[in-house]
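Thread: quick sanity check before group meeting

JM: Hey all, I'm pulling together slides for Thursday and realized we never actually wrote out the predicted structure for the chain we discussed last week. Dropping the sequence here so it's in one place. If anyone has concerns about the input, flag it before I start.
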Amino acid sequence: MSERPTTVTTKRPGRPTRPAGAARPAGAQPARPGGARPARPGSARPGTSAAPGSSGIRQSVERRSSVHLVYLRQLPAWIPPIVLAALLVAGLAVRGWIGAAALCVVAAFIGWLGYLSWPALKTPGRIGRVAVIACLLGLAVFQATR
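JM (edit): ok, ran it. Output follows.
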């Protein structure tokens, strides 16, 4: 029986390593910046629409949203849900316009993501997004009048 290694490495077995500064073999591709893989054919690339044949307004919103989506993607994965949960709890706990504003921010964020993902959603997903946004806005109106 062979023993398992006690350490984890990022080197893949069977992959030859080259000393730093050594020349690449002939015909080898240069390393991509940041190790990023090229986009698959047909996938959405920055600056292009994920929904072919969409209107000019949708393309404009998708293009402007790409910067914000990249920023959100670079944040630690736990930050956006925690911020949304905090805004939701604050919106439900605080009476008046402050609570209503917090609920409207949550509804706007979910509405923005829903608008961007709308072409990819099927009917149940669309109904769910609209229902959540309607409930949040209804709660915001209720909070504003208390």
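AS: nice. The chain has four helices and no strands. The CA atoms of residues 34 and 137 lie 42 Å apart.
JM: adding both to the slides.
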